[in-house]
Amino acid sequence: GRIVPMALADAPDRRIGLGAMDLLAGGGGLLMGLSLAALVLGAVQDQTMTVQMLGLLGAQVLSLGPVVGYFLVRAQQTPPGVRGLLRVGVVPTQCRRDVGVGVFGGLLALAIVPGVIVFFSILGLLVGQVPQVIAHELLVKLTESDSAVATALLLVSAVVMAPLLEELAYRGLLQSVLVETLPGRRMLAVVIASVIFAVMHAGGVAWQALPALAVLGVMLGWVYEHTGSLWPSIIIHVIFNATNVGFVLVSH
User: Is this structure's pTM higher than 0.85?
Assistant: First the structure.
């Protein structure tokens, strides 16, 4: 039972002096961003699909942008400049390793996460739950797209913006804060960050997908701790989202 914690104990040191105040600042930025994003989405909900997708991209940036911006600014302070970004894994130093780990992890996620969704879907049926659409609301919108431009914008949103912003926010800031405030308990920090990551998707997916997203979050967080780089996690996230989008496009 000590294999994973011991392995994480030997992982790269990413400490830059993050603490509870950084968690509060990130949470405040998230609340502000979500409020602005809601206003944008409300303003475009009756517009054409292309305008809705533009609004969605803007809402993504507004919702997580303040958190990501705070993390990047904070990372450059201790140690100063690029060295801080290197320390928290924003600037890649081992590109071949990051790509290799990312591709392998992406394939592993595609093997594990759907199985978790199936398990909880069956569990739901056994307790009398009515079957629901499991797919993220972005994938549902993809089936409703009425133009190539709208589809392209949705692809950018799902395959580029979501992985990049979410990994910087949930793994970069949130998990890093938890690692520093829970010394010696890196795996616990990974699990907490992963649960929060899953809960934040509660409005966009059926409940059966939430445990699977938590499992995905643990995989992403574990990889981040082991490599000290955010890029393998970003690549895994991109592969996972791209495969889901590709499946919808092929089956639609």
Answer: yes
